[in-house]
Amino acid sequence: MTLTKEDIIKILDDKKITYEIVEHKPVFTIDEMLECNLPHPEQIAKNLFIRDDKKRKYYLITCLEDKKINLKEFRKEHETRPLTFASEEDLMAKMGLTRGAVTPLGILANEEKDVVVFMDKDYENKLMGIHPCDNTATVYVNCRDISKLIKNHGNEIHFVKM
Question: Which of 32, 53, 161, 162 pairs as cysteine with 27 (C-beta 3.0–4.6 A)?
């Protein structure tokens, strides 16, 4: 399943979740996003879609954009198999997303509910800037609302220090 920006806005509206959306040129990296002079640049999220070396477990790591994620340390802390970035094919198959549009909202398209989400504890109960499954916009929404959507969808979510 693939969700569009319009699908995401409808979900947010139906759930009465407060948000702010900003349209911008297509962006594929955090640097390109920051060049858009978006509001709340300190709340922009970096999203990494990773998998284990056997392609059995998939993870979405969401953290503040200025944080560095060491996959070896992450593996040790969370007792996973060796980790690597998932392919664009895996991203499309698991969350219906394309490169540059990775977002925790993509979890809502994960029909198998097998992608585990690790969210930066620094976002807990704070505003986060993420794509609405489309890299031509950024939606600002409270992390607790995103967390609730993910949990209600049935995916596992953990808040961890990054």
Answer: 32
